[in-house]
Amino acid sequence: MTFSIHGLAVARGIAIGRAVLVASSRVDVAHYFIEHSQIDAELQRITSARQSVMQEVQRLHQSVPKDAPPELAALLEVHMMMLQDEMLADGVKHWVTDRLYNAEWALTSQLEVVTRQFDEMEDAYLRERKGDLEQVVERLLRHMKGLPTALPQPTPRKSAGGWQQDQLLDDSHDVPLVLIAHDLSPADMLQFKQSVFTGFVTDVGGKTSHTAIVARSLDIPAVVGARNASHLVRQDDWVIIDGDAGVIIVSPSTIILEEYAFKQRQAQLERERLARLKKTPAVTLDGQKIDLLANIELPEDSQQALAMGAVGVGLFRSEFLFMGREGQLPNEEEQYQAYKRAVEGMKGLPVTIRTVDVGADKPLDRTAKDEAHLNPALGLRAIRWSLADPSMFLSQLRAILRSAVHGQVNLLIPMLAHAREIRQTFELLVQARKQLDKRGVPYGDVRVGAMIEVPAAALSLPLFLKYFDFLSIGTNDLIQYTLAIDRADEQVAHLYDPLHPAILHLLADTISQGAAAGKEVSLCGEMAGDPSLTRLLLGMGLRHFSMHPTQLLRVKQEVLRSDATRLKPWALKVISAEEPAVEILKS
Ligand code: PEP
Ligand code: MG
């Protein structure tokens, strides 16, 4: 039966494919495709993990003290049964051999299929056995990762249960795949960057959550905040993701499929048409030259930036080098090599490297959600984190300074609000240069800029203009902090409003005070890549836009059609309107 699910549209286009559900597991699981030649070795990894965990559970079973509650021995027996169950093994084998999933991913995929069958069971006792299965799979995963395998928690039980045969389809692995998950961390998304997925959906997340931002950079249709999509969609269902409308259509009829296939072809034609603008300079009708820069997450993204005609990198989110490494931070040399690759990749064009911005919805590790802190977005994030660990920060500063030998580098500092944070940052920069001098290591000149993304910064512009060479407005956070809306929370996503008069005033002030001081102001939040806002930003005086390379041509098209001088009075009217969004629609 066809049904649709609504979420938030975050990355444009239509994707049609079979659903791949990524089950959330308490163990950090890598998802990647293996080669045909690796199938046997991958299956062998699962077999040996099963054997070892089996031996371990048997040992535990034998050592259960006589006076222990009877449930404990029964529980271990259930676990042993589940470990031996052929249905689990057969399902896992399917994912490895037919879909070429790595062993861990195959295990969590099969877990997802089987737990769904448990959920549908009438018998409450049997339904409860789902927890046992999750524990067994978790033990296997922990074993494969070389982590200690924790003792299962005894729960009251009546008798042991099994599960139904799954209804897996045995398509070949050439079928287009779309990814459906409850949540994906930015680090997960990064891993999917090289993958074959043609679209993705998550239950949670807001339009400017970092997961959505990375999705946009992948240029594949995506919907976030789809609430319970990962429960409603089943492994292998045919799914259409409409990234423009924020809709997911599950098990579509042939007529619907044809309609969306047509839309897909139209979008492809539009892309080809836009591609002709790659080399066209971004100049408005009244001759204003506009800098369209790229936001990147990895050094290799510089290739796409160049290919789309970016005139530089306006934001290199360096934190992506720090993520998914199980707490092991990259050292100075490793960072230097990465920055150097990005700088050389841009072939002489400027690269703005932002110092690490972890915390809030960008945990260092997928599993390290900062549950200890109630408000991580207001906590030890970005520059606060860097200043709290000067030796880590110094090594990043040294690496960035060294990369400036290879091209034009700008250094950008995130989330500043206080004068003392600014002073400490500059002191550490002096210290980093001295350390390099002492070691006799060459480094280059960098322009130093501040992100304006905390309302306190946007309201203290003279301070920032005194210290910094340039400013970069981070509207994603500026909106989050000004409107008191968690950018990653889909429940308040409807209140996340870039056109709120308060936001527009802060933007207009930053742009005009920057211009009056003769300092460059750029905008690197998601607003910069939204073509429906380009005219307004041009009218407000913005001349430097930084966005995902994939958004660049649409924004350029708007720039080419605009007369910035004529847009100025209109922009003033929009800024002072009670409901700016309505004014924009009227124009
Ligand atoms: C922003 O806040 O607008 C920004 C560009 O930084 P990030 O999205 O990485 O927080
Ligand atoms: Mg930010």
Report on this model:
With 587 residues, the chain is of the alpha/beta class. The longest helix is centred in the N-terminal third of the chain and has 24 residues. It is globular. It has three domains: 143 residues, Phosphohistidine domain (Glucose Oxidase, domain 1), CATH 3.50.30.10; 109 residues, Enzyme I, Chain A, domain 2, CATH 1.10.274; 302 residues, TIM Barrel, CATH 3.20.20. Helix 1 packs antiparallel against helix 2 and helix 12 packs parallel to helix 14. The chain has 23 helices and 16 strands. The site of magnesium ion (MG) has 5 residues, from helix 18.
Q: Brief overview, please?
A:
It contains 23 helices and 16 strands.
Topology:
Layout lengths: L2 E4 L1 E4 L2 E9 L16 H24 L7 H15 L1 H12 L5 H17 L4 H5 L1 H16 L31 E5 L4 H7 L4 E6 L7 H9 L3 E3 L4 H4 L5 E5 L4 E4 L3 H22 L15 E6 L4 H7 L5 E5 L14 H14 L5 E4 L28 H6 L1 H14 L5 E5 L5 H21 L6 E7 L2 H4 L2 H7 L2 E4 L1 H9 L17 H16 L3 E4 L10 H6 L4 E4 L4 H10 L2 H12 L4 H7 L1
Parallel strand pairs: 3-4, 4-5, 5-6, 9-10, 9-16, 10-11, 11-12, 12-13, 13-14, 14-15, 15-16
Antiparallel strand pairs: 1-8, 2-6, 3-7, 7-8
Helix pairs in contact: 1-2, 1-6, 2-6, 3-4, 4-6, 7-8, 12-14, 14-15
The site of phosphoenolpyruvate has 11 residues, from strand 10 and helix 18.
